[in-house]
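Hey team,

Sharing the CBS domain-containing protein run so nobody has to redo it. Sequence (174 residues) first:
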Amino acid sequence: MAPTSYQAPHKGDADHNQTYSQSTGSAMSSQQSTVGDILSGKGQDVIAVRPGDSIADVATLLSGKKIGAVVVRDQTGAMVGILSERDIVNQLAKTPGSTLSLRAQDLMTTGIQTCAPSEILTAILKRMTEGRFRHLPVMDDGQLIGLVSIGDVVKHRLIELEYEALKMKQMIVG
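Structure output:
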């Protein structure tokens, strides 16, 4: 039995081959979020240390700023590495009692992966998950313009998904 709101086509009605039903794609923005969208809300501040800074100082900075990683820059300001709390903890497990006197250059990760502000968040999330790293420097025209964490990406995606769910509810309700 058809719903009471259904009315069968009548002779002379317009062509019914075309559908007007909504899909998730038609209701949502077709534009996918990018790294630049995160930076526009978060800002472009990048906390950096020098290669010769002690791990004790870096750990104090990480704790004080409530961040998980810092960029390591040389005297010219060029990015030469990234140092995360995970790097420090791994070294602490290997050499307890002697880690804090080491230097940032001793533990930093070199050969850093970076991203551009135009990159799509879902692709960045996949790269970070597969590469098992949580921080990604953002480069634009060879310049470091920000740092995004996996937490930033997940938070942004959750907000988007909540918005999309709301829009779908609005479509269903009318």
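The mean pLDDT is 86.

Ping me if you want the raw files.
A.
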